[in-house]
Amino acid sequence: MKLNIKKIFRSNKENQSSHDSEHIWLDNFLAEIGGLSLFTVNFFKELFRPPYEHKEFLRQANKIGLSTLPLIGITAFIMGLVLTLQSKPMMVEFGAESWLPGMVAVSIVREIGPVITALICAGKIGSGIGAELGSMKVTEQIDAMEVSGTNPMNYLVVTRVLATTFTIPILVLYADAISFIGSYIAINLQGFTSFRLFVNLAFDPLHYSDLVPATIKTFFFGYAIGIIGCYKGYNSLKGTEGVGKAANSAVVISSLVIFIMDLVAVQLAELLNIFN
Fold first, then answer.
1. What would the mean pLDDT of 168-189 be, rounded to a whole number?
2. Which of 140, 145, 146, 241 is deepest in the core (most CB within 10 A)?
3. How do the domains of the chain map onto residue ranges?
């Protein structure tokens, strides 16, 4: 009887602890959503409030672009090369080898280019912003800016979010172009196809309905990377440990949001195609 009572008490205690952990996780999730929402509202308030930090915006855009160009270029080249090499045997088997450039172009422009480039930027840029602002928060540099009369939300957050929002689409177009070069080289590994013919075959199946939605969603990808990275860094706590957590969580959350945004964008594009 004593053993049964102990087992019942232990099981009840374990169930209670599991329920408590679930409530804590839910509370943290809701608090994170609320905090990010308030941070977003503050961002839009400061966006239209002078002074406008043009020089800092250009510096951040230049920094973001130059720091990611080599990595995105190498990844995009390999992406176009591998996609073409993997698809070519199947296209040859069905006698549709001439459709290969168009198939690769549509795949890269619609999905692979924007998503892969955004994920690379989330890992490179998002973590960098989170760590940079987190270290400034921990060392009280942000508090010092407030005391000195500088608006840190305007100078630190608005400039970085705008820089990612307008730089990511340019990096995606750059990645698409490099991917086409990789695809052209892969096609010419066995045989020869002129570059003019390759360009005609690649761009023939592309339409504005492919390019416009793919370009528009890259602005949202860039905004998500910037706002999440700034939010996690701006609210970093617990010293150097908090800086590491801010950088890590910025990458994880940004990547998840990119996939969700891409899913929504695909569904919206399909609906627009149906109505048209």
1. 93
2. 145
3. 53-275
Report in angstroms the alpha-carbon separations of 34 from 30, 54, 71, 81: 6, 30, 34, 43
pTM: 0.86
User: Which tokens is 104 given?
Assistant: 């690769």
- Percent of the chain past pLDDT 90, that is, above it, reads 44
**Residue environment code for 63-82, b if the CB has 16+ CB neighbours within 10 A, otherwise e:** ebbeebeeebbebbbebbbe
191-249 pLDDT, tens digit per residue, is 778 888 888 988 888 888 788 889 999 999 999 999 999 999 988 877 777 888 888 99
**30 vs 1, 37, 40, 264, CA distance in Å?**
43, 10, 15, 22
Q: What is the DSSP string of the chain?
A: -HHHHHHHHHHHHHHHHHHHHHHHHHHHHHHHHHHHHHHHHHHHHHHTSSPP-HHHHHHHHHHHHHHHHHHHHHHHHHHHHHHHHHHHHHHHHTT-GGGHHHHHHHHIIIIIHHHHHHHHHIIIIIHHHHHHHHHHHHTTHHHHHHHTT--HIIIIIIHHHHHHHHHHHHHHHHHHHHHHHHHHHHHTTSS---HHHHHHHHHTT--HHHHHHHHHHHHHHHHHHHHHHHHHHHT--SHHHHHHHHHHHHHHHHHHHHHHHHHHHHHHHHHHHHH-
Q: Could you report the per-residue pLDDT of 100-158, keeping only the tens digit for each?
A: 888 999 999 989 999 999 999 999 999 999 999 988 888 888 888 888 877 889 899 99
